[in-house]
Amino acid sequence: MSMLDALAPAIAGAMAHPGFWWLAVTLAAAGIVRGFTGFGSALIFVPVAGIFLPPVHVIAIIALVEIASIGALVPRAWAHADKGQVALLVLAALPTVPMGLWIMDLLDATIVRWIVAVFAGGTLLALVSGWHYSGRTTLWVVIAIGAVAGLLGGMTGLTGPVVVLFYLAGGRVAQTVRANTILFLGAMDVVIVANLMLRGFTDMSILWLAALLSVPYFVGMLAGQALFNPAQEALYRRAALTVIGFAVLAGLPIWQ
């Protein structure tokens, strides 16, 4: 028996998962947006995935899929990021990720979906309107932003919104915003998966589902990265916000 024959049942089982092709298409779009903006994949995937999966599986899949693709984005982002500030954000998030996962366990799945809709929709409105944090970037502000991002990431999988709005403050250039968010989100994916493993998460069907879904995400992300051009920042933002808007609307619990 070949290795492919041995893996075939697991692959077939993952592809038979309800909503598999919707999830694959959604992650392909999320990958393109992540590739040329550095963020937005969770804002696109999490609302749609909540239609087909319980919250813990949504969180596990988006984190695992992004970990599988870290190598495609991090090397280029490393040279342009403020690594000291990103490290501080990650350190602040470390204790709040398990708190977020604990809160997620206590909540009904529909409530989690509404929380996702509120935060994703609120982030979308803030980005469309141009609102962002405009206060001083002090040490305690950075720590607070990281802590809130970790809590929200553990509870819903939406690690990025708080940090993205923070990094849009102060007129930072698109390349720096993109690099910082790529490093932070990559680190947080590792932190979330580590916490899930410590909690005993070993659902092989979800691991296989994440492995298969990483393919369209990775391809989309490479395409998005190839498209990235700082001179076209406004165009990329409009395209990304449009896709995020459709995902938020599609994932509203009112449709079920």
Automatic annotation (TrEMBL):
Membrane topology (UniProt): Multi-pass membrane protein
Residue stretches in coiled coil: none
Domain of life: Bacteria
Residues passing through the membrane, by range: 20-46, 84-104, 111-133, 139-169, 181-200, 206-228, 235-255
Chief location: membrane
Places the protein is found: Cell membrane
Keywords recorded for this protein, A-Z: Cell membrane, Membrane, Transmembrane, Transmembrane helix, Transport
Pfam families xref list: TauE
Family of the protein in this entry: Belongs to the 4-toluene sulfonate uptake permease (TSUP) (TC 2.A.102) family.
Protein name: Probable membrane transporter protein
